[in-house]
C-alpha cells in the first residue's frame, strides 16, 4: 500500500525527501513560531496541539490558556488510578498505557451523547471534548505507570495548575528539577505529535474511529500499533541495541568496530533499529532536530551513549546501502530519541514508547475531531483471496 493515496489528513503532510510539515510548517519553522513555556525555549505540546487542530499558530496567551485548561482537567479518575495500581509491574508499560486509555472511556462524552441519540452534525463537538480530556489526562496516567513500574517508593505529585502539559509530565515523572530534560521532553513530544495519516498508529486511530468508537478506545487501539518494534517501539529497541553495542565494543570506539557490529546484526537476520522508513528517503528531520538539541549542550556532546549514537549514524547508511535491501538507509527519529533520556537519567528504555504515545495523541486525536466534523465514512477497503489474486494476475 506504499504510495496509495487513500486518506484525508489535514494536520501534516510527509514528503519523502523533505520530511514532515505541520500545516505547511517545517520543524525549524515550528521551532521559530510556536510559543514556548515560561522560562523555556522549546515549543510546547499545547502550541503544537493548537496548530494541528486549527491550522493557526497560537499566541503565547492562547497557548497558556490551553495549558491552564489541560491542567484543570488533568487528574485521573480514582478507578483508573486503582486499575493501573493493580497491574503487575512486569506488564509492559505500553500495555498498561493502552489499558488505562481504554478505561478512560468510562467518561466518554461522545459515547454518552451517541446513546442519547445526537445528530451526525453534532458528533464533532463531543469528540473534541473527549480528545481534550484525554490529552489532559495522559501525563498523570503515563507518570503513574512510570512510578509503579520503576519507582514504587516515590509518591506521585498532583497536577500543578501553573505548569504546561509537559512541565507537569516531567514533574510527575520525578524530573521536574531537571530543566534540560523537561525542555527535551517538550521538543520530543511536539516533534512526535503527528506524521501524516498513514503511519500505523495514526491510521489505527482513524480506522477504529471510523466505526464511531469513541476517541478513548480509538486511541487505545492506536497505542497498540505504536507498541510494535517496526513502529514506535523502535526507540526502546535502539537503546537496547546501542547499549549492547557499547558493551561489546568497550571504550575504544571506532568506525570499523561499529561497522562490524552493524554487519553482525544484519547477518543474524535482524533489522537495524532506528534506520529505514516506509516513506522517508532522506535522514528524518526529527532526527536532525533532536541531534541539534544534543549539539547545543556540552554535557550531551560529552556523553558516551550520545557519541555512540552519532557515530553509528555516520557509519550505518553506507553499511545499509551495501546490504542493499532497505530503500532508506538513513536514521529515523527513533535512532536518537532515547539516548538523551538515557543521559539525563530516564534510563528505563521499556518506558520510552509511552512518551511517544503521550505525544502521538496530539495528531491522531485532532484528526478524529476533523473526521467527525467532515462526516468521513466507515473505512472498509477491499481484500482479495489468493485465488482471486492469481486470477487477476493471469487476466492482466
Ligand atoms: C516512528 C517510526 O515508526 S520510524 C520507523 C521505526 N522502525 C525502525 O526503525 C525499525 C527498523 N526499520 C524497518 O524495519 C523498516 O525500515 C521499516 C519498518 C521502518 C519500513 O519498512 P519498509 O517500508 O518495508 O522498508 P523497505 O521497503 O525499505 O524494506 C525493504 C527490505 O529492507 C529491509 N529493511 C528495511 N529497513 C531495514 C533496517 N533498518 N535494517 C535491516 N533491514 C531493513 C526490510 O526488512 C525489507 O526486507 P525484506 O525484503 O527481506 O522484507
Ligand atoms: O510515518 C511513519 O510511517 C512512521 C513514523 O515515522 C511515525 O509515525 O512517526
TrEMBL record:
PANTHER family: CITRATE SYNTHASE (PTHR11739), CITRATE SYNTHASE 3, MITOCHONDRIAL (PTHR11739:SF15). Pfam families: Citrate_synt. GO terms for molecular function: acyltransferase activity, acyl groups converted into alkyl on transfer. Keywords: Mitochondrion, Transferase, Transit peptide. One of its GO terms (cellular component) is mitochondrial matrix. This is Citrate synthase. NCBIfam families: PRK09569.1. Its main location: mitochondrion. Belongs to the citrate synthase family. The keyword Ubl conjugation does not apply. It is found in: Mitochondrion. InterPro entries: Citrate_synth-like_lrg_a-sub, Citrate_synth-like_sm_a-sub, Citrate_synthase, Citrate_synthase_AS, Citrate_synthase_sf. GO terms for biological process: carbohydrate metabolic process; tricarboxylic acid cycle.
